[in-house]
Amino acid sequence: MGIFFTSRVSLSASLLAFVLRGDVSLPVAAAAAKACQNFKIPVTVTSENYIFGLPKFQNNYDLMDVLTDIESRTFATDFHPYSGAMNQTASFVDHAIAHGYSVFTYDRLGVGASSKVSGYVSQPAIQVAVLQDLVRLVRSGQNTTPVGVPKSLVLMGHSFGSILVAAAATSQPDLTDGLILISFSYNGTNIADLDTGYITTVDFFADGNTLFKKSDYDVNVVEFTHDTRAPFAIAELISLPVVNFVAAEFKGALQIITGKYDFIFCTGNCDGVIEHPAAEIFAQAKTFEAISYPKAGHHSNFAFNAQGAYGNITDFRGRNGF
Which residues are within 8 A (CB) of 36 and not within 5 positions of it... i.e. 6 or more apart? Predict the structure, then answer.
């Protein structure tokens, strides 16, 4: 199946980016005149995916019942959402540019300008395969004008994007020179064209409660992120437990940076949580750094002090020669 992506900045919670370093660094003064280019990139991938075996959602009550089953303590033994498996073919940017980096971003499958597929089909296995294929294209210098062939490449993901990035490096440890996992821990769009297999937060207050921390954000920003939020495929959610993102063979540089009050990955407090077992998992990494970033929740990119987090990320890349 041909899958098309456009390389544009996405405000979805799972933005993925390649941070590229070319042979020539741009001076800070040139950052204001950054050159952005859009590409439609056909990608053909093959991955083993599960077949959604439950009745498709007819209303919010159907969805609520499935989510209740997922939260059940007997989830592992009693919940069987798939009927089989099949093979299917299937701004931080300004800050980075100001420090001499180029950034390649894309919308994941089903989001933004990328191909729309059923929410009962889109799964992490497909998303990881697409990511790995795109990395190979970028590594070879395709769709990287005017950077050309990058001398180094760092994969960066946020939230679900961090899981995909880690999974990509798990099966292909030499895929990237570095990993930056944002709003992540081992502990612990316009949806009119999509089918009922896509879900999203119910309202503005759900976003604020789950993704932000009171007094550390602008209410107008919460409204903006809610209005521009991207949907999540139910098949992506249910199939997460079968994704292997424990990249124990990765030997590059790794940074995990997560808002201290991240509710999704740390249940509200990341202090003392994100360092372990991550440090043990990435025992072979040449460098390891874990930061519980203060005064920020899951959406650390939108906190009042987001520039400080960007500085931590840029400093990490610089210290590791990227």
Answer: 8, 9
Question: Are the CB atoms for 256 and 291 separated by under 8 Å?
Answer: yes
The two three-digit tokens of residue 56, written as one number:
């498709």
Q: Is the dihedral of CA 292, 296, 300, 304 positive or negative?
A: negative
CA 25 to chain centre: 26
Please give the distance of CA 231 from its chain centroid, rounded to a whole number.
13
The CA-CA-CA angle for residues 51, 55, 58, to 5°, reads 130
Residue whose pair of structure tokens reads 């490096």 in the numeric block: 169
CA distances from 212 to 91, 204, 218, 242 (A): 17, 11, 10, 28
Does this model's pTM top 0.85? My answer is no
Report whether 134 contacts 68 (CB < 8 A).
no
Of 31-40, 69-78, 81-90, least confident by mean pLDDT is 81-90
In Å, how far from its chain's centre is CA 249?
A: 20
**CB within 8 Å of 23: residues ≥ 6 apart:** 148, 151
Residue 111 backbone zone (phi > 0: left; psi -120 to 50: alpha; other: beta) = beta
